[in-house]
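Q: What does the assembled structure look like for these inputs?
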Amino acid sequence: MKRRIDNAAALQHNTKRNRADSSVEEESELSSQDLSQNDSLHDQEDEKPGFSSTASFDDQDASQTSSFSMYNSVSQKLMAKMGFREGDGLGKFGQGRKEIVEASTQRGRRGLGLKVQGFQGELNVDWRDEPEPSATEKVDWFPECTTEIPDSDELREWLILGQRKLKINDETEFCTEDLLHTLLRCKSVFDNLEGEEMRRARTRSNPYEVIRGGIFLNRAAMKMANIDHCFDSMFTNPKDSQGKSLTKDREGELLYFGDVCAGPGGFSEYILWRRRWHAKGFGMTLKGPCDFKLEDFYAAPSELFEPYYGEGGVDGDGDITRPENITAFRNFVLENTDKRGLHCLMADGGFSVEGQENIQEILSKQLLLCQFLTALSTLRTGGHFVCKTFDLFTPFSVGLVYLLYLCFERVSLFQTCHQQAG
Ligand SMILES: C[S@@+](CC[C@H](N)C(=O)[O-])C[C@H]1O[C@@H](n2cnc3c(N)ncnc32)[C@H](O)[C@@H]1O
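A:
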């Protein structure tokens, strides 16, 4: 290795040019080629100390690290044959450039010289050198709540009406200023990424993302499976305080579940898959392109799932932020559960915040409030609620979590390894 004389500028030149020409998708393939060349070099280096036929190679300082050492011996020999010597320039009289032509880091249709703030680091990271990913998901419960639930008069006093606030960089009541600004700076780095780059960055930040939907229609179903598993099947096999199952498979009550802000319906598909026929689901979500896609349920029958879009029933708009829809959905659930309510409600509301990612928490306030309200309206005593949230540090979100803490026996903030990095 030490004595390997470097070069192969032509090949290097080609390789680099190929890289620059490649689309983003091709990059990983190309880097894998580079690596296999590198591997073969390691394999061959003892037998084939490349370029030994050229005097200058032998003259090289054995300890010198060559900038060409990443190229295989065949390439190095080819270059050597053509008279190339490391340290000399290319060309008949060695008059050409001596430095490696850097691979272009240009992406997509960006200008050649463009620097993306925060992304000046090493672009050709070899991810295969990273350790095998593993995740330990730990469920932490808030301490037991001993505070009485305030009555509605007191709650009314808490209400402050004001202008809609769209600024987040001053929200330091539950987050230190330093942490908040660091967080916002880190998030802003992604603002200049193109769609494909963003997706790749996200996949790299969470290796479990590539599991995708598995046997289900989407990755949300896998997320729910993951959550249910971590919480001891609390959502598919609820138990009483003695640990006895409340909804046994054949005897006993059906599992009644709700799924709001839920299109296309992966969460429900998971529950139905676990319960087979022994469940009944009610769902409400916005009509439109993100509506339920019951015909796409792969793993479970959708007959036991009933979409209901609030006021107007199947003709409603499904918008959970309209109070009349929440009331209609609650009535529908109560009518169909012998007035007992649901064993569990799942809520996964989200919408595009493109261009305003840093204030997603603020933009989602109303949605979060309405999902919490729907849970409190439709769950039976002892029922379970799971809700996807974004950041939770504004007084509004913290206040909502506090209300849940007062209303439920136990509350946990949980990050699943299936959650996409925000
Ligand atoms: C992340 S998706 C839910 C995925 C779902 N849990 C699944 O398993 O397939 C977010 C959903 O929230 C819905 N949504 C957003 N705003 C809503 C609103 N105001 N009322 C009802 N649904 C809403 C979207 O239409 C979308 O279907």
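Confidence is low (pLDDT under 50) at residues 1-64.
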